[in-house]
Structures are given as structure tokens and as C-alpha cells.
């Protein structure tokens, strides 16, 4: 039977209705993406002149900037959503109704590998670890931002305009409402429980129950969130809860690679997906970083867009069971 679940971290509500997966046209599948043409790939090694000048790179053998020989490379976004020199908009005649602010900040691209591959799952666990190390490095470089939001969009359905695996880092001078709400829920939980950590306590409960647990190692745990908004949504949580991803050393890569590989096995190819790193924003006294992975197997429709309530046709317990077997 359908039920409404409340996500402990966000407070958002999801209708979990597994029977809807059996309706006509309700099945879930993914089809393989076309391979990348290396000749037209601006992120390929040897095409460094097709991007803005790099701001950081891993070069094991040394070498000049903007030349081959890198393993992970960071460049400013060629079409940035944020700019440190963004001008102040003209004030509106009705400021009580219309407000605008300069879109200041930084918008960078982290090219996860010189290999022309579509997904982090196509890299080795060691290569994923190297990429994640640079994610942390660039978050630290923008430590003064109110909020750092790092994302990975894979495939066109996931919002990727270029197929070569890459991450984007947004360094915002404000804390978005959704993240501020999580910050408040962490704080409220700590107050109610005399110092408890919301995600740490949630993790302990999930490990005891095991019904939504997918995989784990000495560093982290992957589970299907209780209030999953989308089918086969996953969450990676460190075993030792710390507020900021960028301060936590080189961990989580092996399990992230494992989770993405399980999704590929389940669907026969790498599904389109969105991935983001949630790290403590400014003003967060109580927090724990995590990585959210959301395969894009269904479309957002009128319910989701009009109400903010998601309809998930695969119960998280079922998704976890299938991925444990994958």
C-alpha cells in the first residue's frame, strides 16, 4: 500500500507507491549512451587549449600548466553561472516585490580523468579517489564561501552538456534554502537530544536494521534513504561523522565506485544520474557530510513540480535488496 514518508534530513515528504511500477509503461530501464568521440572532446588530454587556463591540476610527472600529463584537471567554467565580478543589478521600483542580487562566487569544472569516459563508474577506484581528492582541494580553496556545492551530472538526461566525466563546483555567497533547512534540522535535533548528530544517529539505526543497507566498508556506508525521492536513490555516509567533506581525508572513493558499479549491473549500463556532495555550510554547528546519488530513471511531473512532493515507485527497501544482489 502507498505511504507518505518524511525524510529525516530534509523534512521533505515522498509518496512511496511500489505498486505503480507494475502499471503500463511503469517499468524502469536505461539504455547505453553513445561513446565519446575523442576528436571532439574538449576535456580530452591534448585538448587543453580548448578550455580556459587551468587553476589546478594533478601532474604526477610534473610539467607545464595546460599541457598533457595530468590525471585530474580544474578549469573555470567557460559559461559560468557565478562570477566574482558580477555587477550589482539596478534596484527595482518595487523592491518589496522584486529583488535581485549580484551572482558573485566561483564556478569551476573538475575534469575527473583524462580518459574519454562517460561515468565515474568507468574509472578505477583509485582514479575516483584521485578525483575526490581534487574535489576536496577545490572546496578548501573556496573555504570563504557561504556554501560549496559540488555536483556530478552524468548523461544528457542528468543535465550534462558534455559527456566526458567531470564535476562542477559552485562556491556560493549565500546558503540555499534547501541546505539552510537541513542545517536547521541538524541543529534542532542536537538540541532535542542534548548533542546528538542527526545523520550519525540515523546511520546507526540503518546499520542495525539493515533493510536499506546496500554496501559498507571500513570508511563508509551506502544505503537507500528512508525517504528516497527517486527510484534507486542512494546515500553515502562516512562511518565517523564529520561536518565537512573537504576536511575528512581520502575516504569514500572505493564505496562510491562500488555503488555506481552496482547501479550499472542492475540496469545493464550506466544510468543517467545526478550526484552531489553535501558539506557543512556557514553557520552549521552540527552537521555531517554525505554524498547523494540520484539515478534519473523517471521524469519529474506535475505532482513533483507543483507540490514538491515526490512519487517514488520503488520502495527503498526493494531498491536496496536488488542492489545488494547486483
TrEMBL record:
Nucleotidyltransferase recorded as keyword? yes
Q: Which residues form the Galactose-1-phosphate uridyl transferase N-terminal domain?
A: 3-176
Transmembrane residue ranges: none
Give the compositionally biased regions (Low complexity).
30-43
**Which top-level group of life is the source organism from?**
Bacteria
Name the segments for region: Disordered. 17-50
Alphabetical UniProt keywords: Carbohydrate metabolism, Nucleotidyltransferase, Transferase
Does the record carry Transport as a key word? no
What is the official name of this protein in its record?
DUF4921 family protein
Q: What is the native source organism of this protein?
A: Svornostia abyssi
Taxonomic classification: Bacteria, Bacillati, Actinomycetota, Thermoleophilia, Solirubrobacterales
Amino acid at each position: 500500500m502507498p505511504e507518505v514518508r518524511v525524510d529525516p534530513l530534509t523534512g521533505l515528504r515522498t509518496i512511496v507507491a511500489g505498486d505503480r511500477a507494475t502499471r503500463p509503461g511503469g517499468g524502469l530501464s536505461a539504455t547505453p549512451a553513445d561513446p565519446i568521440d575523442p576528436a571532439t572532446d574538449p576535456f580530452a588530454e591534448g585538448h587543453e587549449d580548448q578550455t580556459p587556463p587551468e587553476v589546478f591540476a594533478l601532474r604526477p610527472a610534473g610539467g607545464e600548466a595546460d599541457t598533457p600529463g595530468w590525471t585530474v584537471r580544474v578549469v573555470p567554467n567557460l559559461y559560468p553561472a557565478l562570477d566574482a565580478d558580477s555587477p550589482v543589478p539596478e534596484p527595482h521600483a518595487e523592491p518589496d516585490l522584486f529583488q535581485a542580487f549580484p551572482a558573485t562566487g566561483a564556478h569551476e569544472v573538475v575534469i575527473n580523468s583524462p580518459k574519454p569516459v562517460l561515468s565515474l563508474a568507468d574509472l578505477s577506484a583509485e582514479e575516483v579517489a584521485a578525483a575526490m581528492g581534487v574535489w576536496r582541494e577545490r572546496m578548501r580553496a573556496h573555504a570563504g564561501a557561504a556554501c560549496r556545492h559540488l555536483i556530478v551530472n552524468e548523461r544528457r538526461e542528468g543535465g550534462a552538456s558534455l559527456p566526458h566525466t567531470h564535476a562542477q563546483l559552485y562556491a556560493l555567497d549565500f546558503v540555499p534554502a534547501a541546505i539552510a533547512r537541513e542545517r536547521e534540522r541538524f541543529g534542532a535535533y542536537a538540541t532535542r537530544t542534548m548533542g546528538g548528530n542527526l545523520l550519525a544517529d540515523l546511520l546507526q539505526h540503518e546499520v542495525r536494521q539493515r533493510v536499506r543497507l546496500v554496501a559498507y566498508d571500513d570508511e563508509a556506508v551506502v544505503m537507500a534513504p528512508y525517504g528516497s525521492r527517486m527510484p534507486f536513490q542512494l546515500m553515502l555516509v562516512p562511518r565517523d561523522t564529520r561536518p565537512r567533506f573537504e576536511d575528512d581525508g581520502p575516504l569514500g572513493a572505493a564505496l562510491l565506485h562500488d555503488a555506481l558499479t552496482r547501479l550499472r549491473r542492475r540496469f545493464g549500463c550506466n544510468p543517467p544520474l545526478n550526484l552531489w556532495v553535501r558539506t557543512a555550510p556557514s553557520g552549521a554547528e552540527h552537521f555531517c557530510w554525505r554524498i547523494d546519488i540520484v539515478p534519473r530513471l523517471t521524469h519529474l511531473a506535475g505532482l513533483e513540480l507543483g507540490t514538491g512532493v515526490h512519487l517514488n515507485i520503488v520502495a527503498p527497501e526493494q531498491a536496496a535488496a536488488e542492489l545488494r544482489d547486483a
